[in-house]
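subagent[fold] <- orchestrator: predict structure for attached chain, return tokens only, no commentary.
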Amino acid sequence: MATSISYAGYGVWNSTDNVTSSVQAAYGSGTRVFLAGNQWGGDPSPGNRKYLYIVWNHEGDAGSGVVGEGDSQGIVVP
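subagent[fold] -> orchestrator:
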């Protein structure tokens, strides 16, 4: 069974962009480790540290992850 990404957001608590389609496209192209950065659609909150949130389903199990800008380890999506 394949992994499906149901939601991805990038930003801060009061200013988050829905970047689900961009993350789904990257996953479809082979990306499995995701880092936070403006490559997901721009800077929704200039001057603040942003976070990337991803929610997925893999073989019937729900999973999620969060990573902040500048973190050395990313979200690993199976």
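orchestrator: received. Logging for downstream: The mean pLDDT is 95. The first strand starts at residue 3 and ends at 12.
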